[in-house]
Amino acid sequence: MSKYLLAIDQGTTSSRAIVFDDAGRTLGSAGKELTQYYPRPGWVEHDAEEIWQSVREVVPAALGAARLQPRDLAGIGITNQRETSLFWDRGTGRPVARALVWQDRRTADFCRDRQQEAAWLQERTGLVLDPYFSATKLRWLLEQDAGLRQRAEKGQVAAGTIDSFLLWRLTGGQVHATDVSNASRTLLLDLATGQWDDELCRFFTVPRAVLPEVRPSANLFGSTRGLDFLPDGLPILGMAGDQQAALFGQCGFTAGEAKCTYGTGAFFLQHLGDRALRSRHRLLTSFAATIDERPQYVLEGSIFIAGAAVQWLRDGLRLIPSAAEVEALASASDPEQPVLFVPAFVGLGAPYWIPEARGALFGLTRGTSAADLAGPRWRAWHIR
Question: What's the gap between Cα 86 and its chain centre?
Fold first, then answer.
């Protein structure tokens, strides 16, 4: 009986695959960076077909690094960038438009104009009314394309976050599902019931029929079918949003345990146990990764840009040829240079929730160098 598991980690800046043995040891991994599309200031998009192709590439590469064959696998787990949303054709499985990334701010006007609704939305969903979340993105896509709305109302397209899109493609279009941790980041899920809410769907004008079935994170979601890189019948045994998955991976299973991880953004999550406490300081309440039908919750603080700022130093300013070289550059910074970098490229997250905010540099002098921009004072994420 096979003892090896495949993890697909579909993130904001890259897709990765990792092969583990039954003791949790990493046997092989592979990754591939994704193209980031910025068609307008504040807009961030992904090509979901490119995401799928990246998964098709990294899975065989990870198996090769582990010196294993696809038939050696016992099952698959998926973790993903949360909130990033798209529609795809139910017949072909192909996206009907680019996915709107969680960092995308194009729905800021909608959110600002409806702040009088924020209180009941937060009570129902545990979230604030912000462009960050999926419902505003799905609404925008439907509003921009009358044909898409007609297809949605006729059941010809499916909608979801990246986990549900990957599940659809892995199962050959047989399963349209998501887990509670991802679903609770959409502004469409009632935290009390753990199910899609009709009133929320009406508010955001998203037909409930396009949404995936909501299941616990540890669940038999389906089996692979019709793939050229994995055999038919390989079970998909779990899915969870990346931040809840990270808390679970750090063994944060009970109330009071917490983690803070640094990736594209930086996210602090504290486990709440079975009580969906609401924050008095504009933090978020969501479902934790769950192992059964019993609800578990987390409290979260979100910083949108962390490691992505290193990517900006590399690709935007071209100060470094690779992300790994930022440490050497930062170590050469002058401690007397009072440079303050606020990387609010896609607005401010918790606790301010200002989608219109943009990044800023303070304290520049004639002596400021590239090293000073990479130095330690760019840790100041928010200004009060």
Answer: 13
**Cα 74 to Cα 186: distance, rounded to the nearest angstrom:** 31
C-alpha distances in Å from residue 262, one per residue of 176, 204, 310: 30, 31, 12
Q: Residue type for 349, please?
A: G
Q: Which amino acid is at 181?
A: S
Number of helices followed by number of strands (H, E) in the chain? 12, 20
pTM: 0.88
The two structure tokens encoding residue 179? 């887990």
- Listed in sequence order, the residues at least 6 apart from 62 whose beta carbon sits closer than 8 Å to its beta carbon are 6, 16, 17, 18, 19, 28, 29, 30
Q: Are strands 360-362 and 340-342 parallel, antiparallel or unpaired?
A: antiparallel
Contact residues for 41 (Cβ-Cβ < 8 A; gap 6+): none
Which two three-digit tokens encode residue 38?
Answer: 């910025």
CA distances in angstroms from 222 to 168, 226, 245, listed in the order given: 9, 13, 19
Angle between helices 162-170 and 48-66 (to 10 degrees): 70
Tokens of 274: 């079975």
Contact 214, 197 (CB under 8 A): no
| Under 8 Å between Cβ of 198 and 140 | no
Write down how long the chain is: 384
Rounded Cα distance between 60 and 63, Å, is: 5
Low-confidence ranges of the chain (pLDDT < 50): 378-384
